[in-house]
Design brief:
The protein is mainly beta and about 130 residues long. Helix content is about 5%, strand content about 40%. It is built from two helices and ten strands; from the N terminus they run E-E-E-E-E-E-E-E-E-E-H-H. The strands form two sheets. It has a six-stranded antiparallel beta sheet, with no helix packed on it. Strands 4-9-6-7 form a four-stranded antiparallel beta sheet, with no helix packed on it. The protein starts with about 25 loop residues before the first strand and ends with a helix.
Length: about 130
């Protein structure tokens, strides 16, 4: 039997990252983040202090949120929705274009995965997060 041949890009490369080596962006006094971006996805460490509110918003990016430390309370669809608490070891999937809001009920470190990458985070046009 012949080995299978898989198409490969012209110059395939892999990149290793260490979170502590990644620049930490202070978005507000209660929220900071580190980003790692590929061609079709983005991985973020998001640091939220207790009481931090991520206002109601939506984006075309599919999102997976995984809580490493702390807990977030989410409202999905509207601010009147029944809140969902996501704690350590739990994951929340938010489909594209779904309205959502979050509140840190403890100091929290979450891992967010976005596909495609959040262009507004890369170019810092995410004004909904930066409002005082």
């Amino acid at each position: 039997m012949l080995p299978l041949k898989h198409p490969m890009p012209d110059n395939p490369t892999a990149t290793k990252y260490t979170w502590d080596d990644m620049p930490k962006e202070q978005v507000t006094d209660q929220l900071s983040r580190r980003l790692i971006t590929g061609d079709k996805m983005m991985l973020a460490h998001v640091y939220l202090k207790k009481g931090c509110i991520v206002p109601l918003h939506q984006h075309h990016n599919e999102q997976i949120t995984y809580i490493l430390e702390g807990a977030l309370r989410f409202w999905i669809g509207s601010e009147d929705a029944e809140p969902i608490v996501v704690g350590v070891g739990e994951v929340l999937h938010i489909p594209s274009n779904v309205w959502h809001k979050a509140e840190a009920i403890e100091d929290t470190l979450d891992v967010d995965i976005f596909s495609p990458p959040r262009q507004d985070w890369l170019d810092k046009s995410d004004d909904y997060l930066r409002l005082k």
